[in-house]
Amino acid sequence: MQFTIGFLRQMRAGLLVLLALTVVLGVFYPAVVWGVGRIGPDSAEGSPVHDTNGCVVGSALVGVDPAPPAGEPDPFFHARTTGSAADEDPFAPGDPAAALPTNQGPSSDVLAGFVAARRAAIAEREGVSPSDVPVDAVTGSGSGIDPHISPAYAAIQVPRVAAATGLGEPRVRELVAEHTEGRQLGFLGEERVNVLELNVALGLTAPDCVTAGG
């Protein structure tokens, strides 16, 4: 009889612990993680960036270089090159889904050729001397999808963007300054400019987005 009562007590205690852990770890904890993951601009929702119509044009955390319409002036700021996992084209777009950078190292002749080709092409596009093209303009990041560029790379693009958009250089420089982020925690990394957010401020929109009133 005593064995049965003790067994039932232990079973009851075990069931209560199981129920408590189920509530805490199966309901409360996931709910807290879900809520915390949606706080702030860099949330688990992917940090979407919206245009003036409220349409999503991309993510603030993923760099995708915009392409102007063929034969028309180029009104966009351009991101860092992503390179190509196949190492066949210095300007081949990377795959944001795979985040594949080039596999070429600092001593690679292929990478050196890519850097030279990029420097010449960017200098011609921006109307500057090749020596004025910043390092980040001709090299990719570790992920291959860096959404930021240096203020120096943004600066050499200002005259072209101002001419293509008709906004004037002072206004474009003002927008660059507004979208320049400081060093993390005040001392980590360098100042940087988010290319997608800057292009949205210049009027970049989602071509296939349907708004509520459209």
UniProtKB/TrEMBL annotation:
Membrane topology: Single-pass membrane protein
Major localization class: membrane
Keyword tRNA processing recorded: no
UniProt entry keywords in alphabetical sequence: ATP-binding, Cell membrane, Ion transport, Membrane, Nucleotide-binding, Potassium, Potassium transport, Transmembrane, Transmembrane helix, Transport
Residue span of region Disordered: 79-104
InterPro entries registered for this protein in UniProt: KdpC
Pfam family, one: KdpC
Record localization: Cell membrane
Function: Part of the high-affinity ATP-driven potassium transport (or Kdp) system, which catalyzes the hydrolysis of ATP coupled with the electrogenic transport of potassium into the cytoplasm. This subunit acts as a catalytic chaperone that increases the ATP-binding affinity of the ATP-hydrolyzing subunit KdpB by the formation of a transient KdpB/KdpC/ATP ternary complex.
Subunit structure, interactors included: The system is composed of three essential subunits: KdpA, KdpB and KdpC.
Family: Belongs to the KdpC family.
PANTHER family given in the database record: POTASSIUM-TRANSPORTING ATPASE C CHAIN, POTASSIUM-TRANSPORTING ATPASE KDPC SUBUNIT
HAMAP family the UniProt entry points to: KdpC
Protein name per UniProt: Potassium-transporting ATPase KdpC subunit
Biological source species: Rhodococcus gannanensis
Lineage: Bacteria, Bacillati, Actinomycetota, Actinomycetes, Mycobacteriales
Name of the gene this protein is made from: kdpC
